[in-house]
UniProtKB/TrEMBL annotation:
All residue ranges annotated as the HNH nuclease domain in the record: 70-119
Organism listed in the record: Streptomyces smaragdinus
Name the UniProt record assigns to this protein: HNH nuclease domain-containing protein
SMART domains membership: HNHc
InterPro entries reported in the protein's UniProt record: HNH_5, HNH_nuc, NA-targeting_endonuclease
Entry-linked Pfam families: HNH_5 (PF14279)
Length: 179
């Protein structure tokens, strides 16, 4: 099922919801559709354009949001789906300092890795192997990472996410330098 970007009344990105939830918000008059996906939903008496981006009519106060949650999907987005050691397609998660040696499960200690590198590294430090990281792991920041970390992406969302750091985030994901 397609997903829809939800913006606050101030155009601040709030999150991503399933199309069905977004459509209920629009039909209840709680949100307005800013971008259509190009698809149409049919009922017995109506045809409605499926939204891709909706904006709430009333401002919703969002409590303080801590750091971006460390999920497998967000980690692969941060690392562009590439192994932090060799650059191959990543299929697993690796702790730079192994957990068996006191490493924490935190953004600055976790990288995406290919199966081969993860197997060879096992529970050793990279210094023991003479390896180097292609990039230093760090926690992502910005509201755009909360959206991009969900794994749902739509090019129609980009203009609404750009003011919140989407250019840098998408450049890291796609491997293209930010303009």
């Amino acid at each position: 099922m397609p997903h829809v970007l939800v913006l606050n009344a101030s155009y601040e990105p709030l999150g991503v919801v399933p199309l069905r939830r977004a459509l209920v918000l629009v039909l209840d008059g709680k949100a307005v559709s800013l971008e259509d996906s190009g698809a149409f939903l049919h009922s017995a008496t109506k045809v409605v354009a499926a939204p891709s981006v909706v904006r709430l009519k009333r401002f919703v106060r969002v409590p303080y949001r801590g750091p971006v949650p460390l999920t497998r999907r967000a980690l692969f987005a941060r690392d562009g789906g590439r192994c932090a050691y060799c650059g191959a397609v990543a299929t697993s998660v690796d702790h730079v300092i192994p957990r068996s040696r006191g490493g924490q499960h935190r953004w600055d200690n976790v990288v995406a890795a290919c199966r081969r590198c993860n197997h060879v590294k096992a529970d050793r430090h990279i210094a023991e192997l003479g390896w180097r990281l292609r990039h230093q792991p760090a926690p992502p920041s910005g509201l755009a990472w909360r959206i991009i970390g969900t794994g749902h992406r739509d090019p129609r969302w980009l203009p609404y996410l750009q003011p919140f750091g989407a250019d840098e985030a998408l450049a890291r994901i796609d491997g293209v330098p930010a303009a």
